[in-house]
Amino acid sequence: QVHLVESGGGLVQVGGSLRLSCEFSGFSRMPRVMGWFRQSPGKEREFVSAVRLSGGTTYYSDSVKGRFTISRNNAKNTVYLQMNSLKPEDTAAYYCAAGLGTITSETANSRGYDYWGQGTQVTVSS
Questions:
Q1: Which residues pair with 37 in a beta bridge?
Q2: Cβ contacts of residue 95 below 8 Å, gap of 6+?
Q3: How far apart are the C-alpha atoms of 16 and 20, rounded to whole Å?
Q4: C-alpha–C-alpha distance, residues 48 and 81, integer Å
Q5: What is the residue-level pLDDT of the chain in tens, covering all 126 positions?
Q6: Is residue 96 a contact partner of residue 49, using CB atoms and an 8 Å limit?
Q7: Which end of the chain, N or C, is less surrounded by CB atoms within 10 Å?
Q8: Integer Cα distance of 121 and 93 in angstroms
Q9: Distance from C-alpha of 18 to C-alpha of 8, rounded to nearest angstrom
């Protein structure tokens, strides 16, 4: 059974940093892409970042580019999201997602992913 478990969320002040982790398991074959999305109350789920597990190509939304860094440790089946210079607008529930056959054009679209974690809350206080 597939599991995606996020951790690392919490409360941080403006300008602070957090590192999210997503440990995944139960896949008969490695996902092609692992992504991070976020959703705040009353808003649609939005793409944050993604990484191709083979090759390591990374993708970022414009709103986090230069502040967030995605990385992966294939040996540990874990993907990380290092978040620096956090802003109040980064406050959201952050979800990890796995895409088995995600193509480049689908990377920033939630429909391109097959499995989702339960989410971890990030709150940035001013």
A1: 47, 95
A2: 6, 36, 37, 38, 39, 45, 116, 117, 118, 119
A3: 13
A4: 10
A5: 999 999 999 999 999 999 999 999 999 999 999 999 999 999 999 999 999 999 899 999 999 999 999 999 999 999 999 999 999 999 999 999 999 988 888 899 999 999 999 999 999 998
A6: no
A7: N
A8: 4
A9: 7
Please give the full DSSP string across the chain, using - where no structure is assigned: --EEEEE--EEEETT--EEEEEEEE--SS--SEEEEEEE-TTS--EEEEEEETTT--EEE-TTTTTTEEEEEEGGGTEEEEEE-S--GGG-EEEEEEEESS--GGGTTSGGG-SEE---EEEEEE-
Tell me the sheet residues that pair with 22.
Answer: 6, 79
β-sheet bridge partners, residue 94:
38, 120
